[in-house]
Predict the structure of Pyruvate kinase-like protein.
Amino acid sequence: MSVHALAKSASHNFSKTLVSQLTLIEGRGIEGDCHNGIHVQHRSRMHIQPPPPNLRQVHLIPKEILDAVGIGPGQIGENITTTGVDLLSLGAGTKLHFLPADESGDEESPHPVVVIQGLRNPCPQIDKFRAGLKESFVVRDEQRNIVGRRAGVMGTVHAGGVVEEGMRIVVESPGEYQALACV
């Protein structure tokens, strides 16, 4: 379980620019990213008053999902692309610990931690990136009702620090499992 790729954007572009590292800021998000803030920064929600808390500070998605639909890291706006972690099966409140790849650090040493808050709801902008792509990120039942979403997860920064490509990810499950809902 590791970090495959990292991306950010200072402006509200759909795709994000690949970078070799991200600096996470506790309670705010990613330094230099347009979604950094204690209140929601997504354009579709910025009109809400009072402004809701920002539960979408960090967008994570498994590389395996991107590979299945033929797109690369950062292209649908995610910040952290993972490998070997089934993010969609984790519960709300799960902590993702980012540790050095060489196993020199442990969970007791200071390190970045992201808390999973919920699922990313695939938005219409995905079809603007590539026509028909949004449908690849939803699961439907026989009546065509959406019963699952596969566009990654959204999280908040519990502990700040630098995340780099190749870092190990250690999953800490919450005491009680709570299924992920869209945030």
About this structure: The chain has one domain: 2-172. The CA atoms of residues 60 and 80 lie 5 Å apart. The first helix runs from residue 63 to 69.
